[in-house]
Design a protein that fits this description.
Blueprint (H helix, E strand, L loop, with lengths): L7 E2 L4 E2 L14 E2 L4 H14 L3 H19 L1 E2 L9 H10 L5 H11 L5 H7 L22
Antiparallel strand pairs: 1-2, 3-4
C-alpha cells in the first residue's frame, strides 16, 4: 500500500505529512543453523536407503530445499521504533488514523493517558514492503 503524502485529517483540518516519506532499513543478522550438518546427515541416510528413483529424486531436492532454509537463520530480527508523532504520521498516510486515535494521541503527548489509550493508538507496524517468490517444483511428480 502506498502512503498518501498529502494525507489530510478532516477533524482538525491539517496535513499529517510534510510531503516526505522517510525510510529506515534495518539489517538483520543471519548465520547458518547449528543443526545444518545434522540435517544433511539425516537426509543423506534417507537418500542412501531409498530404492524408488522418483522418491529418491524427491528426497534429493527436498534436502536441497530444507538445507537452504536453515543456511541463514535470522538471529537478530531487526526492529525499529517510532516516536508518537512519527507513528501518527505513518498511520495518517495510510488512512488508518481517525478521531479516536487522535484523542488518545493528544492524551498521550500531554501525559494524561491510560493503558486503553496505548492500546488504541499504538499497534505494531508490520513491514510495509513485501514480495513474492516462485519456486520450481521438485520434479514432474511434484510440480
Amino acid at each position: 500500500m502506498r502512503p498518501d503524502l498529502k494525507a489530510f485529517d478532516t477533524w482538525n483540518n491539517h496535513y499529517f505529512s510534510d510531503g516526505i516519506f522517510r525510510t529506515v532499513i534495518l539489517k538483520d543478522f543471519e548465520m547458518p543453523s547449528t543443526v545444518l550438518n545434522d540435517l544433511a546427515d539425516v537426509f543423506d541416510t534417507m537418500i542412501a536407503k531409498e530404492t524408488n528413483p522418483i522418491r529418491k529424486d524427491v528426497l534429493i531436492n527436498k534436502k536441497k530445499y530444507v538445507l537452504e532454509q536453515f543456511a541463514n537463520i535470522n538471529i537478530a530480527d531487526g526492529q525499529g521504533y517510532s516516536s508518537p508523532s512519527s507513528y501518527r504520521k505513518k498511520m495518517g498516510l495510510f488512512g488508518k488514523w481517525g478521531q479516536r486515535q487522535e484523542d488518545a494521541y493528544q492524551r498521550i503527548i500531554h501525559g494524561e493517558f491510560s493503558n486503553q489509550d496505548l492500546d488504541i493508538a499504538f499497534q505494531p507496524l508490520k513491514p510495509f514492503v513485501f514480495g513474492f517468490t516462485k519456486r520450481n517444483g521438485y520434479n514432474d511428480v511434484m510440480p
